[in-house]
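Side project, low priority. Logging it here so it doesn't get lost.
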Amino acid sequence: MGYNPSTYERAPTEDENTNNDTQNNDEPSTISPKVVFAIIGLLIGVAIGYGIAQVLTGDSEPATIEVPVEVSNDDELNKLQTDLDKANSQILLLEGRLTSFDEIQSLLAETQNELENANRELLESTNKFNNYEQTIEDLQNEIELHIDDLEIANKRISNLLTAAEPEPAAADPEPAAEPEPAAEPEPAAAIDEKISLGSVNLVYGTSLIPISDPTPVGESILIETEATNISENRITISWIAIITNIETGETKEVYVFNIQLDPGYSFKLGNTWTPDSAGQYNIEAFAVDNLTDKNPISSTQSKVITVA
């Protein structure tokens, strides 16, 4: 059951009962509950004040509080110093590695640039090489196209050198002797035929176009025949073509020398001649062993042309 101050009635004391009896025996007690609480609070305050006074006065012994303090020994300090030194060393090492990494990265960038430059130079060199190769191929084709012209030019030089040789001076005419009876012609010496010579073929220069009949004056003519080695040995031969003006008897000689031919093989031999005057010309071509002895080793092939 809860406490209700309004219903609290203080028990009468002996004195009070006596006084009340003397004054008014019939009047009830009228002490207020607030007064009761004030008294209780005062008593509690006095108790607390006494306790504080006991603490503050010198008679009481002060309470001693001990706080444990852990002091590191020398070994632990040395260990910490060593760890700190190691950490500093590692920091310095890392800084050095970082610097080396920056240098390597810079060097790598430079190497990359040099590699790119080298690749560009290689590409340019490759393009130049391809151009040079194409140029060489074009020159080779051009040389093959003009090789015949070079051979013909060399033959013309030989002809000019031959034509420049002085002709023997004509001897003073002797008084005509009485004609002797004509002797019978000696039989022609047998030819040791080692070369089979084809028919005479006439074309204009290097164009390989057959000449017309008549052919114009001053037009270069290539005289050629096909020679075949019919012997059993490899031989060295020379080729001669003699051009004779049928009307005047004047002759012109063109030749090719020191041609080696294996058994059974064929080769076209020829040289150029340029007629400088009109008329009929007889062309005789044959093979000889050399240009000194001029011993025939083939039959003679002939052809007559008209120059106008």
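Brief comment: The CA atoms of residues 109 and 115 lie 10 Å apart.
Revisit when time allows.
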